[in-house]
Amino acid sequence: MTDEKLIEEAKKRFAKSVEAEAENRKNWIDDVQFYSGEQWPTEIRKSREFDSRPCLTVNRLPQFVRQVTNDQRQNRPSIKIRPADDNADPETAEILQGLVRHIESNSNADQAYDNAFFYAVTGSFGYFRIVTDYASDNSFEQEIFIRRIANPLSVYGDADSNEPDGSDWNYCFVVEEVPRDAFEAEHGKEEVADWEQGTGGDGGWVTKDTVRVAEYYYVTQEKVTIYLHADGSVSEEASTDPMFPDLDKREVQKRVVRWAKLGGDKVLDKTDLPGTYIPVIPVYGDEVIIDGKKELISLIRFAKDPQRMLNYWRSTETELVALQPKAPFVVAEGQLEGYEGEWKQANTKNFAYLTYNPVDVNGNQVPAPQRQGFAAPPSGVLQGALNAESDLKSVTGIYDASLGAKSNETSGKAILARQKEGDVSTFHFIDNMTRAIRQAGRILVQYIPAIYDTPRVVRILGEDGTEEMRQVNQPVIEKDEQGNPVERIYDLGLGTYDVVCAAGPSYSTQRQEAAASMQAILQAAPQLMQVAGDLLVKNLDWPGADELAERLKKTIPPELQDEEEQQIPPQVQQAMQQMEQAIQQREQMIQQLMQELQSLKAQEGNDQAKVAIDAKKVEIDAYKAETDRLKVELEAQAAQVEIDKANIEQAISSESSSAVNETLAQVAQMQQVIAQTLQSMQAVAPQTAKVKRARAVKQPDGSWAMESVEEAAPQMPVAIEELPEGEM
C-alpha cells in the first residue's frame, strides 16, 4: 500500500471512530469530572454563589471507587500458559509463563493495569498496550514491555468491534499532541499539511504550536499457503526433503498486523508487528448495546443523582443553621440595668461571666436571664440527606460492611454475606479486567517467539518471585528424573499454547493467609502438628523456615511421606533404564531401515533391488517385533514395581508401631475438626482447583493406613496449592 492510500484509509477510519465513540467519550469526560468534584451545574453554582448561598460538595464517590479498584489490586489476575497441541511442551510452557512474569515485573505492568482499570471504573473505559524496545541504549536485543496509556481519550478503536477485549480490532489509533519544535527536531522542518475537516471531528491536526502524531495500527488479510509435513507439523514453507514429502497443502487468509506513524499528511515510519492481534488492549466498564450502538457505563454514571441530592441537602442544612438568628436572652425589666453594654455583646463575645440584677424595677426577686432556644433544621432536610446516602449505596451495590463501616448487621455471617454481595455487584469490572489481561497474555505468547527468536539466555520469574536464568532456542544438557544427562531444546516458536487468566491473591498473600489458616487449624488440633508441622513452617515468612521444614519432615511417619520420595530400588531403576535405552536404539534402527527402504524403492525396477526390499521389510518386521516385546516387558516390570510398592506399604502398615497407629488414629479423629474449621471460612469466592488429600482408613486387621483422595479445594480465603499425595 502506498503512503497516499494509507493516509486516505486512515482518514476514513479515524472519522468513523470519532463518530462512533462521540457519545461514550462525552460521557467519559462528564463521569471523570464528576468523580473529581465538579458536581454542581455551572448555572446553579453561579446562581447560589451570587445569592451568597452555600454550595457544598460532600464527595462520597472516591470511597466507592477505591473499594472496587483496591479490591482488584489485592486480587490481581495472573496469566497461566498451557500447552495446546502435540508440539507444545509443558516445560516450555513454564518458561513462557516465567517470561511473562518477567515482562510484567520489568515493565511495572501493575501501573498499566491499575491505570486502565481505574478509568474503566470512573469513566467506563481505559487502555494499556504492549510495545517492543531495545533492552538498553548499548544493546541490540529487543525486549517486550507493557505500557500504560495515561490518557484513554488518546485512543480511537475499531468502530465495528464486538469483542469486549478488543481481540477483533482491525485498526486502532493512538494520538498525541507533539510540540512543533520537538516534531521538527525529530522529523525535520518539512511542512506538513493538516487533515481535512470532518476527518477528525475537530480538525486541528497541525497548528502553529503543535502537530498531532497518530500511531496507526491496522490489520491486512493476506493469502498464504500452509503445508502439512510428514511429522504432523504445519508451516508456510514446503518440504525440501524428497524422502519425506508434504502430505497436504491449502490456502488460508492470514492476519498481518502493521503499524504506521502519521504526522499530518506524512507517513513518518511504518513496520510489521508480530502476531495477529493489535497490541492495544481495552478495559471496559459495563457494556450495553442500544440500537446497534455500544454504550459504556461506569460506576459513577448512575451514582450522580444521589450524590447531587446529598450535596443539595447538606448545603440546605448548612444554610438553615447559618441563617438561624442568634438565640436571645429573656430577662425581666430592669434586670440588666447598669450592665447593658456587656449583654449587648453576649452573642458575639465570650465573656468569663455576665452580671445581672436579681430584682426587677419593682424590687421583686426574679430568676437569672434565660437564653431562648432556636428551632432545629426541619426533619425533612436530615431525612433527605440520609436517603441520598442510602441511594448511593444501593446504586453502587457497596454497603457499609464492604466499606469497613459499622452497619446494622450484628453477626459475623451477616457481615460476610453483605461483603460478598457488595463484591458480586461490582464483579463485572474485575471480570472485564481479567479478560483484558488474558488478551494481553495471548499477545505476549505471540510476541515472545518473534522477539526471543535467537539462542539466548532469558530471565524468568517463578510464582514466588524467585529468579532463574534459562537457555532457550538451543540445545541444553539437563538431568532426567534418574539423574542421567539428556539433551533438550526449549524452542519458544514450536507448538501452540493456550492462555488462561484467573483472579486471586498474590503468592505472598497466599502464603501468609495459608500460614494463618494452618495456625488456626493446629490450635484446634495440636496433634496435627506431628503429621503436618512441616507444611506450616514452610509457609512462615522468616529466615530458615525451609530448612526447619525439611528437618520436621524427616520426623513424619513414612506412610505420610510423598509417594515421589519412595524411590524405586536402584537395581530395578538400572534394569528399567537399560530396557528403555534398548527400545530407543531399536526405534532409531527401524527409522534408519525405513530410510534405506525408501532408497531401494527408487530402484524398484531392478530384480536385485526387489530382493533387497523384501529383505529389508523382513528385517524391519523383526526389529518391530523385538521392540514391541521389550515394551511389553517394560510395562510388566513397571506394574510389578507398583505391586511391590503396595506390598511394602501394606507390610509397613501392618507392622507399624503402636505410636504410628495412634498418630494415624488421631489424624482420622481430626478430619471432622478440620472440615468444620474449613466450613466456617467459606464466606469468600469459591476455589475451583483440585487438591489431593490424605485420609486415614482403618484396615480389617485393626491397623491404620493412609488413602489418597482427590477433591475440590475448600472455600477458603486463600488459594490452596495442590499438595502431593500423602501430605496434609
Layout of SSEs?
Blueprint: H1 3-35, H2 42-50, H3 61-74, E1 77-83, H4 90-107, H5 109-122, E2 125-134, E3 142-148, E4 155-156, E5 171-179, H6 180-187, E6 210-228, E7 234-235, E8 248-263, E9 266-273, E10 280-284, E11 286-290, E12 293-297, H7 304-323, E13 329-330, H8 340-344, E14 370-371, H9 379-396, H10 400-403, H11 412-425, H12 427-451, E15 456-461, E16 467-472, E17 475-479, E18 485-489, E19 497-503, H13 507-524, H14 529-538, H15 545-553, H16 570-601, H17 607-655, H18 658-679, E20 690-698, E21 704-712
Antiparallel strand pairs: 1-19, 2-3, 2-10, 4-5, 5-6, 6-7, 6-8, 8-9, 11-12, 13-14, 15-16, 17-18, 20-21
Structure description:
With 728 residues, this protein is an alpha+beta fold. The chain folds into four domains: 3-299, no CATH class; 325-374, no CATH class; 507-557 and 657-712, no CATH class; 570-655. The chain is built from 18 helices and 21 strands. The protein has helices at residues 3-35, 42-50, 61-74, 90-107, 109-122, 180-187, 304-323, 340-344, 379-396, 400-403, 412-425, 427-451, 507-524, 529-538, 545-553, 570-601, 607-655, 658-679; strands at residues 77-83, 125-134, 142-148, 155-156, 171-179, 210-228, 234-235, 248-263, 266-273, 280-284, 286-290, 293-297, 329-330, 370-371, 456-461, 467-472, 475-479, 485-489, 497-503, 690-698, 704-712. The strands form eight sheets. Strands 4, 5, 6, 7, 8 and 9 form a six-stranded antiparallel β-sheet that branches. A hairpin with a 7-residue loop joins strand 2 and strand 3 (142-148).
